[in-house]
Amino acid sequence: MNSFATAREPFRFYTRMQLAELTGLKASNLEELLYYIKQVPTSSIYQHTHRYLQQHQYVSPEPPNDFAYWVSETLKESELAEELASIDTIQYPTLRSLREKIILTIENHLSLHPKLRQKNAPDGHDFYFVKSVNFILPTNYVATNLHEFTELLKKITLDSIYFHIFEARLRLEKGTNDFSRWIETSVGDKELADRIAQLDPYTHTLEHLRGTIIKRITYSTVKV
Prior knowledge:
Elements: E1 11-27, H1 30-39, H2 42-55, H3 66-73, H4 78-85, H5 95-112, E2 127-143, H6 146-153, H7 158-171, H8 178-187, H9 190-197, H10 206-222
Antiparallel strand pairs: 1-2
């Protein structure tokens, strides 16, 4: 494919600033944890399933979610913690569906082990619910074709990559990442768009994800 062919619409890169805000809600046992998981805004579910990924962008992928960590380290319930940690986030297109999976996992476990409902955390080790408040900012980087897109992809910050890959698909409920959407709808290369969409971003560091996307675009534009 000609990487210099002008896209129907240019792609503007955005970036993000994130602020963590306390909700004032806390849980001291699994029953309370389950109750508040059902009540908190989706921005809190997002925070507790993506916090580690956002704060440790260069380290190994597949970070634990906060629910699994608290259940394991504070309540010492390794079986449930394992079940929560094994939830494959990429399989859930919205935060609502991800929340429902977390709820179902805890409910199923409690139905088998009802005595765990009231097993309290040690004093001072409650689970505090936090929500993620994001500020989305446009950058000066705009691509009008795949060649420019690839060159800019090498320059943008990891926060920008994070926004277009993770937040666009899950938090903004776009169904796919922004890169794949633009490549399919504006560049007209559905095959390349699908190849990028098929990447599981939770199994890559952000830098490795950047490099993998660049390689897939480069291969697509030079292949005969």
